[in-house]
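Ticket #4471: structure export looks truncated?
Reporter: QA, pipeline team
Priority: medium

Steps to reproduce: submit the single chain below to the structure queue and open the exported record.
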Amino acid sequence: MNFQEELCAWYKIHHRELPFRQSRDPYAIWVSEIMAQQTRIDSMLPYYKRWMERWPTVEALAEAPIEDILHVWQGLGYYNRARKLHAGAKVVVERYGGLLPADVEQLRTIPGIGFYTAGAIGSIAYGLRAPAVDGNVLRVTTRVLQYGEDITKKTTADYVWRQVYDWMEGSNPAVFTQAMMEIGALVCTPKNPQCLLCPLAPFCGAGQDGSWSQYPVKKKAKPPLELQLYTYWIENDRRQILLSDDWSDGLMEGLYRLPQAAAPLEQTDQLDFAGQRKHVFSHRVWKMECYRGQWDDQVQETLPEHCFWIAKDQLDTLPIVGAHRKWLDEGLADDAEASPDNPESVQISEASLTDPAETAGIEACQVSDASIMEKKKNKKKG
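Actual output as written to the record:
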């Protein structure tokens, strides 16, 4: 058997049963491909299920408020994907009557659909000979061919695209495209690939001489920019909390956040220091000095720009940036546990606080209790 025959035969036996593979609906394939970008499949599956239940058609998505879309997307990160899905759905309805076109060039005119996504929709939904070159496909191809050029270069992407196009000849495009993705995800992995079990071993130069770790070649990314920020959890006596819709930093437009700035508010001394937290994005790091407390009526009359009050029990209905959502969820849970209305509540001392740290994909949050104690010591000394 040749390259594509070996690959497709392997896929038919070993592929994972995933919900979006049960359909040839171009809309479902579009949604799944966008969600899977920069996200592990097992992490995106619950989101995919909820999304398709809520907006099962392009028309339903196009009519949905962007705020609802961003709220459902919370936790997946890279929120611009959701915004472009929404914008793209509107274009599909207006220009194509709600049906994604069976033409790769036309697909690429839709917001959020580039070479890869157009190839995935074209080959999987419509059976077009249209390569879909993602990270998995780049890795498999460069290892098989021992291609040593930087994969961030357009010339490399073009070379791989042409090679995959040649391999597709005579195949079922839907099977071939998914097989290339699947073998990269399950066998030809970034670390510790299973070369001895790989059906492409007879064709793979890097597998045969053990040089797989040298491919693909990729230049080092710049380290993310670290930003020192002051972040505020402010309440009033009406069980409301202060939120902001300031998106001037260009991050996560459409998602609300706690008031946050590079310089402290004048009223910072009226609030309690609440620790330091860290949130890592792909290209930025928020290092947050956090304060929490209540403002009196006089302060409430002069709110910071872009800020507004919202009832605490309505927070779950709003899309809120992950860095702040995590703090809010943790703080509200602690408040409920310590509430006098809770028969099991106990008084929590500073010494009992732990250091929660979680990492999901490219995002991470950390809180330092030592920094809380240090600040309070300094405050007493002053």
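Status: closed, not a bug. The export was complete when the record was re-opened. Leaving a note from the reviewer for reference: The chain has a mean pLDDT of 87.
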